[in-house]
Amino acid sequence: MAKHYVQEALDLLSSTLDPFIEERMRQFTGGLEWTVVLQELDRMRGKGAWTYSRSDPSLQLRMLTERLGALGHPFDAGDRNRTLGTYGQVMRIVRNRLSHGDAFEAFDALHAVDTVRTILAHIGDEPGAALAASIRTALISELLKNSDLGTGGRAEPDTAMETDASTPGADSAGDFGKEGPPASGAASSNPPSWPDSAENLQGALVWEPWRPVIVGEQEDLDSMRRARVRENVRALIEDIAQTEGPVHQDRVARLVGLAFGFSRLVPARARRIVGQIPRASVTVDVDGFVWPEGVDRDTWLVHRTSSDAERPFEHISPVEIANAAASVVRAADTAVPPGELRTLVLQQFGRKRGSRTTNAYLDRGMAYATTSGRIP
Q1: What is the pTM of this model?
Q2: In this predicted structure, which of 148-157, 172-181, 354-363 has the lowest mean pLDDT?
Q3: 103-115: pLDDT as tens digits
């Protein structure tokens, strides 16, 4: 029953976000619909045919949360806290769960409706915020009538527990470390227009880390017996893949752990999380990298610039390394000697030289660049 109120709140949010996004993006798109930005981004990411509807909340929330190429994060311009990006990330996870038909307990539903109310208030839609508050009141009344709220909405554990799936590499999860502050994404005083700014999407993008949000308690992740927890984990996996994909499954486990309050994951917890990856709407390649649904690695042609402090080199997909090599070759006026090419590829990811481990991963990427036809 609580899910009905969550859907109502999301529909309310969607009805406001379309005109809000259109108004904010008008200075960049030059009269084109704002969905053209996502279309261009997805084209570069190798995503297949897709229907881009302005009323689709998944697309609206992507606009609030993703780096939009050279435009950065225009909806959080000047906001060091990235307020819309943070709350938008929460609603992306909620929308993922709704799309899969997941159940919502009292705490989850109240949190989702409150998040909608906060977003609407933040963007100045006072009537919308008032409507969200009324949805919250109706939800609380319903929960009290059903005596659900008094127990915290905690359902009994499922009788059948899904077994852990042990996947190579999961045992390596250790200190999560700090992701570092997200890029501010503030718009410049002379922002690029669209489609001129689309040229900046070609080849190299700035790597954008997924912004962790808390969705549960540590004790939930320790057993993963309850459907609610597994559904949350799968929604997180899908959202992480959408933001960072291709992303190594070890990093996926660490980010999911952080969303449940763990800054450090022991191997058993990492295995439980990785065991949920095949059950999420993502794909995993032979190298252990998680890809968002609908993206073909053979037509994914971008690479994301980053430093070793942001991404260990072994957490960069061989496909991405191959794309960097292809980008370097295209930019060169003459043939690039193999040794120089390797150095230039490392520089794309903030490295000056390669260690034994780095060189091994670089070899895999360079080999893929040749076998896939990205470089001759």
Answers
A1: 0.69
A2: 172-181
A3: 888 888 988 999 9
